Amino acid sequence: MSDKKVRASALDEGRRSGDGRAFVGMPSFPEAAHEAVGDTTLRANLRHATHTIRDKRARAVAELDDWAALREAGKRIKDETLRHLDTHLLRLEAGVTDAGGTVHWAADAAEANRIVADLVRATGETEVVKVKSMATQEIGLNEHLEAEGIAAYETDLAELIVQLGEDRPSHILVPAIHRNRGEIRDIFAEKMGSWGRAAPEGLSDTPAELAEAARLHLREKFLRAKVGISGANFMVAETGTLVVVESEGNGRMCLTLPETLISVVGIEKVVPTWRDLEVFLQTLPRSSTAERMNPYTSMWTGTADEDGPRAFHLVLLDNGRTDALADEVGRQALRCIRCSACLNVCPVYERAGGHAYGSVYPGPIGAILTPQLRGTTSEIDASLPYASSLCGACYEVCPVAIDIPEVLVHLRERVAEEGGKGHRLEKAAIKAASWVLDHPNVLAAGERVASATRKVHPKRLPGPGARQWSDHRDLPELPAEPFRDWWRKNRT
Amino acid sequence: MTDAVSARERILARVRAAVAGAPEAPAVDRDYRTSHTADDPAAVLGLLHENLADYRAHVHRTAPGGLAALVAERLAERGARSVAVPPGLPDAWLAATDAVRRPDEPRLTPYELDGIDAVVTGCALAIAETGTLVLDGGPGQGRRALTLVPDLHVCVVLAPEQVVASVPLALPLLDPGRPLTWISGPSATSDIELDRVEGVHGPRTLEVILVVSR
Ligand code: SF4
Q1: ipTM of this predicted complex?
Q2: Same domain, A299 and A154
Q3: Do B144 and A256 touch (CB under 8 A)?
């Protein structure tokens, strides 16, 4: 309990300094979603993007006739990992240490930020290059470093767009999915100069020219970088190996050129054996970028003589993960390999946009992960489990078979228990649920999927109230009685 | 340091408490395929060629005797006047090019590498189903920065001995103790309206030469 308090206060602090700038005072889901829905450019960008990726993903997955077996294996590997997480983490620690790396443990965001800032300061450097990492966004590392006088440069093209535009990421894989080429051109032309090499004169809005501008802008930073910061997609306990999967080569730059590398990774990213990668290196690229394989994957174990950084630090991050692990139903969210397939099929995400989820984890995975990592005491976090019609499309595409609808229903009950009738959390929740109901296409899209995937539905009550707010009852047959009608009948 | 120790103990204690009494996870079934491709070297090589090209690598084939001329041709065609040379690269591979050789001994600085047009390397192995080249820093490959900073990478694959069909067949052949780079096509981004653009930070051009010995 005291641990939990420590973490909560650290998070509060994080909100003030770091994650704070991005997400503090976030309106609850429906208000944020309302803005997004009013913005037709954003909606068109999102729709185009999500539909393009989801169709490509389906083709990439169809190439492997053993997909179902790979998915089941991925799920079981992660479940086994979580069941014996202590053993695997200790083994990982030994592997990294034996190979010349140093392992640090951070119970919360404040500890992780402090460790990283101290490590950077010890090098005497005042700037770092970063490869996209959700864990460092989660803890608000950039803002913390900035407060300590250390400039952190994002090097992923989309993260660069977000950083230069003083914006927030809205998609796991394509964080600037809400920006179109014209907006990106304007941001580059206006802002690059104050961060380093300015954009070329007469920059057009063709993606190739924009990518070239980013290449030139970032190259000088890569070449002089002494400290790199990354996350990791996987950590292999058996060998102490870290794996980063990427497309642009900015990851390789950050992992290879600096003298010091610091990787901040959630404790759930460990997998037991080297062989386990054979599953995830098949399912992750196809699920995320819809490719047979992403352009670049880097694997390293500690430090190597004459190749890459001379010092390697791994910061293992808890920050609420052990709370999620303690929840029998909710812990499956820790299987997530952040592929973002669930975002791309979600009718709510498509219409509400990533910012509505009020955290670095948008979409269906965010709706189940954020309330578990941060708790459900704020309006935004309490409303997240209601930002869904429970259509089940996310579960269908998830490469580690996370039953997101099941966890959503479970979390609704938790919110209801914590809130109680008339409580501000109840109001936030009801508003989120009403938002879903007031968007007929969200429901219609959801119901189409639902009739196809009825078997995956949780049997429990889907609406805003669990026991505390309305009579507990089993879920009605969706095709016979759409969620909308069920809600109307039960909302009082 | 006491702080760090206590964070470690605290996290481990929380992990143990969180799963105490939880049922064992079901055993992992590995009943997925080891390979999706017929066990025929020519078919596997054909698939590698096709998948590399599909992700915009430029793929060429030659018998061993034609390698030096083909390397020289690729470098010339791309206008490369200087070429980084990893330790252990067979001299014969560069016998026909007049590009200036820049050996990585002593280590080239990032700025020096940035001024070099191309790099020629071998690889540890290639994976047909995914169109992937894996480099492990062995002889003729060099450290990771060599294949990252110059804008043109010419990679030589010896077939059939370096070609495997699938990811599950590749992993047991690789040593996790070495830094590994898996390369599937030139660097790319789809961050702008999901339009794929080849070539962001890594080499914008990837030329693959399949040396077919039989
Ligand atoms: S929940 Fe599943 S589908 Fe969604 S990002 Fe995570 S692994 Fe991918």
Answers
A1: 0.96
A2: yes
A3: yes
Q: Is residue A152 part of a domain?
A: yes
Return the residue matching tokens 């003589």: A305
Tokens standing for A35? Answer: 């803005």
pLDDT at A375: 85
Q: What is the pLDDT of residue A485?
A: 45
Whether A178 and A36 share a structural domain = yes
Question: What pLDDT, on the 0 to 100 scale, is given for residue A10?
Answer: 33
| CATH number of B66's domain | 3.40.50.10420
Give residue-wise pLDDT tens across range B46-78.
Answer: 999 999 999 999 999 999 999 999 999 999 999
**Same domain, yes or no: A154 and A291:** yes
The conformational region for residue A375 under phi > 0 = left, psi -120 to 50 = alpha, else beta, is left
**Ligand 1 centroid vs B183 CA: distance in angstroms?**
24
Indicate if ligand 1 lies below 6 Å from the C-beta of A336: yes
**Ligand 1 within 6 A of CB of A402:** yes
Is residue A415 within 8 A of residue A376, CB to CB? The reply is: yes
How far from B33 is each of A230, A282, A293, B82, CA to CA, in Å?
Answer: 32, 11, 17, 44
Query: Which tokens go with A70?
Result: 């790979």
Å from CA of A183 to ligand 1 middle:
29
Do the domain assignments include residue B1? no
Flag whether A162 is in a domain: yes
The pick from A70, A245, A336 for probing ligand 1's pocket by mutation, whose C-beta has the most ligand atoms within 8 angstroms, reads A336
* Contact flag B189-A248 (C-beta cutoff 8 Å): yes
Instruction: Give mean pLDDT in consecutive 10-residue pieces for chain B, a chain of 214 residues.
Output: 74 97 93 94 97 95 97 98 98 97 94 97 98 97 97 97 98 98 89 79 94 88
Q: What's the structural domain count of chain A?
A: 2
Domain count, chain B: 1
**A163, A215, A218: best to mutate for the B interface, most B CBs within 10 A:** A215
DSSP code of B107? P
Among A433, A385, A378, CA closest to A26: A378
User: What residue numbers bound the domain in which A310 lies?
Assistant: 14-317
- State the pairing for strand pair B188-189/B197-198: antiparallel
Interface of B with A in 67-126 (CB under 8 A): 107, 110-111, 114
- The answer to whether the beta carbons of residues B137 and B144 sit under 8 Å apart is yes
* Phi, psi for A326 (deg, rounded to 5): -75, -10
pLDDT of residue A22: 36
Regions in chain A scoring below 70 on pLDDT: 1-28, 30-38, 419-423, 437, 440, 443-492
Of the residues A271, A286, A317, the one at which a domain ends: A317
Q: Are residues A26 and A155 in the same domain?
A: yes
Whether residue B3 lies inside any domain: the answer is no
Question: Which of these three, A317, A336, A359, is where a domain ends?
Answer: A317
pLDDT at residue A466, as a whole number = 38
CA distance A5 to A122: 30
- pLDDT score recorded for residue A481: 38
- Specify if A468 maps to a domain: yes
Residue A232, domain CATH: 3.40.50.10420
Rounded Cα gap, residues A370 and A381, in angstroms: 7
Q: Which residues of chain B are within 8 Å of residue A373 when distances are taken between CB atoms? A: none
pLDDT for the residue numbered A420: 61
Per the domain annotation, does B169 fall within a domain? Answer: yes
Position A428 scores a pLDDT of 74
DSSP state of A400: T
Give a yes or no: residue A390 inside a domain: no
CA distance A398 to chain B (A): 17
Taking the C-alpha atoms of residue A76 and residue A74, their distance in angstroms, rounded to an integer, is 5
Q: Mapped to the 3 state alphabet, what secondary structure does B47-99 carry?
A: HHHHHHHHCCCEEEEECHHHHHHHHHHHHHHCCCCEEEECCCCCHHHHCCCCC
Do A149 and A291 share a domain, yes or no?
yes
- On whether residue B74 sits in a domain, the answer given is yes
Relative to the CA of A343, which ligand 1 atom is closest? 4
